[in-house]
Design goal:
Blueprint: E1 2-7, E2 10-15, H1 22-29, E3 48-51, E4 54-57, H2 63-66, E5 70-72, H3 80-91, H4 101-114, H5 120-127, H6 137-152
Parallel strand pairs: 1-5
Antiparallel strand pairs: 1-2, 3-4, 3-5
Length: 153
């Protein structure tokens, strides 16, 4: 079936079976490999992308539901919040293995877009769907706090 998508601000068409997870369309058909496959059951967050500005887990989100919507992957993430989060990630040396980081950043950008001054509880809640095998959670929280401070300055 032919599906028309808006990925990272670009109109794209893909020919895939109905029900194909958005993750596989992003990675295999569109060759945008920043979004990662982690668990395949929507419990780790490595596959987080934005659909119309809100985070979704693309491994369990069917292409049928994504068509016609605005999809942003880590490759297309831009703007002041995104740039500030990415800078804070580097300043706090968050990344260890890096596998989960695109999903972590997508969730952090969503949080700071909705709440520019999150509490620890807000951060923990917003990031609870993202697992990190290297356990860099303290550095992730510190980076989100730093980004928040920079955005408010």
């Amino acid at each position: 079936m032919l599906f028309n998508l808006n990925i990272n601000g670009q109109a794209r068409s893909v020919e895939v079976e109905a029900g194909t997870p958005l993750l596989w369309v992003i990675r295999d058909e569109l060759k945008l490999t920043g979004t990662k496959f982690g668990c395949g059951v929507a419990s780790c967050g490595a596959c987080t992308v934005h659909l119309n500005g809100s985070p979704i887990l693309s491994c369990s989100f069917p292409i049928d539901s994504a068509a016609g919507n605005n999809i942003t992957t880590i490759e297309g993430l831009q703007g002041e919040v995104a740039e500030t989060v990415q800078l804070a990630w580097r300043e706090k040396d968050v990344v260890q293995c890096g596998y989960c980081q695109s999903g972590q950043i997508m969730s952090a950008v969503d949080l700071l877009t909705r709440n520019s001054s999150p509490s620890d509880s807000d951060i923990d809640s917003a990031m609870s769907g993202n697992a990190c095998r290297c356990a860099t959670y303290v550095r992730i929280r510190d980076a989100i706090k730093l980004a928040s401070q920079k955005l408010e300055a």
